[in-house]
Amino acid sequence: YGAKIRAPHALVMTFLFKSGSLREKLRSIAQATYTHSRNLAYFVFTYKGLMAAQSRLQGKKIPFHSFFAACIGGWLVFGENNPINSQIIMYLLSRILFGLSRLAVEKGYIPQPRQDPFPLLAALVWGTVLWLFEYHRETLQPSLQSSMTYLYEDSEVWHDLSDFLIYNKRTDPK
Hints:
Elements lengths: L1 H16 L4 H37 L4 H16 L4 H24 L11 H18 L6 H11 L8 H5 L9
Helix pairs in contact: 1-2, 2-3
């Protein structure tokens, strides 16, 4: 599963934003795919093993088991701050926030919105990320910085159609 998810992403991001030889790019893609796949496999093994051990020790499965097993697995497997783990954690965090928001409405902790809050959320997210990009760029993840640089700065210089189709960061011979 990790290879299925990471390989296409690594391929696109590497060829869009990384420099180097074809061999270096392919090695980078393979390394990212391997790391993502390995970490997911280690995490699943750790999580399932701890779930089984807890269930066996207590004679039944209880909700806390899931949280505890995942915390231990997350610490052991995803605790190193590297680009792959960082991206996985950010992916999960965004989905957790959506899930917790829905759960809070479902449980009655917050009222059901009268209108769809998504447009407001979209406005706040884009406003915040562009403000951070313009004034506190170093706080953003490097791959997000690269994407935003490509979209909002590199796009100000055009040579020909290949800039749009391939990559528009090149030096002109003078």
